[in-house]
Amino acid sequence: xxxxxxxxxxxxxxxxxxxxxxxxxxxxxxxxxxxxxxxxxxxxxxxxxxxxxxxxxxxxxxxxxxxxxxxxxxxxxxxxxxxxxxxxxxxxxxxxxxxxxxxxxxxxxxxxxxxxxxxxxxxxxxxxxxxxxxxxxxxxxxxxxxxxxxx
Length: 151
Prior knowledge:
By secondary structure, the chain is α+β, with helices and mostly antiparallel strands. It has helices spanning 15-25, 31-42, 97-111, 126-134, and strands spanning 6-9, 47-53, 59-68, 80-88, 117-118. The chain is built from 4 helices and 5 strands, in the order βααβββαβα. The longest helix has 15 residues, at 97-111.
């Protein structure tokens, strides 16, 4: 049986729920860094955050979309939409929430002159790679970043 889900555009009262779920998605981020990043993105004009809530009004998922005017790997057009993050609480997965988030995000991006949607994940994150492929994304480039300390 599918859960009853309501979808809202993010508002400030959703921040704590977004932050809590964000800690689950981005486990490697230091909490203070993640909080600052989420505060920055929630105040940006080039983004749209959707929140899914269960029948009790409790947030069970989010998706963050941005409009990028800089280069997006593999893109041919600008501006380009970008899926910055998507998370669904484990008990609510396989209820069509991700699909609905993507539909809503794509509609918003198209209304803002975006013709493509980019995203990324770690090369080793096979679950996220499979998720993206399931929803029509194609892999563009495998990239390894390097850093050298200059003493």
